[in-house]
Amino acid sequence: MGIEPSQLFKATALTHTSALMRIWREMAPSPPGWSYVRLDQDIDDAGSIAWRGTVDADIATHGCPRFMILDVHQVVARNSIAMRFKSAGWARTLLQHLIQGAIYTGSNDHAGIVISTVLRFAGMPNVTRLGDEGALRKAVARYRSGAPLDDVPIRQD
To answer: What does the pLDDT look like over 94-144, one tens digit per residue?
Structure first.
């Protein structure tokens, strides 16, 4: 079933929890740190609006992180194509403010196909798909240290 975030984070890092999702924020090595967003339910159009709004609220409260990991390894996207395009536009805007982002799909083929298609459409070079637990652990370690992944482009100012 993948890595449980409680294996990666202290309980105090949890900034949001709901049936839909959880967000962890670490201020290491310095504020505004980095975020880990885990979606815990299949996503329909209403869920898509809700999770993006929650991430926006977290950013308004804690500042825009340098790095972000979105964990969708247990999710099935049930949202419309139109909503996927809105999500891609939102992600493109967000990634203009992040140094780098990653999306953990694990072995979830459905999520992998949807994410790969959205990334290709939106043209977001500073984000990558993490397909296994080893890659996820590497990304967590790098982001925790304040460093981007070496094999993924970073935001160009």
So the answer is: 989 999 999 898 888 777 777 776 666 667 788 888 989 999 999 999 999
Of 39, 47, 41, 32, the C-alpha closest to 16 is 39
Q: How far is CA 12 from CA 15, 51, 73, in A?
A: 8, 21, 23
> Is the pTM above the cut of 0.85?
yes
Chain centre to alpha carbon of residue 72 = 8
Question: For the chain, which domains are there?
Answer: 5-144 (3.30.750.24)
Residues contacting 129, CB < 8 A, separation 6+: 102, 103, 105, 112, 115, 116, 119
Dig out the tokens for 84 from the structure.
């996927």
pLDDT for residue 120: 66
According to DSSP, the β-strands at 127-130 and 14-17 are unpaired
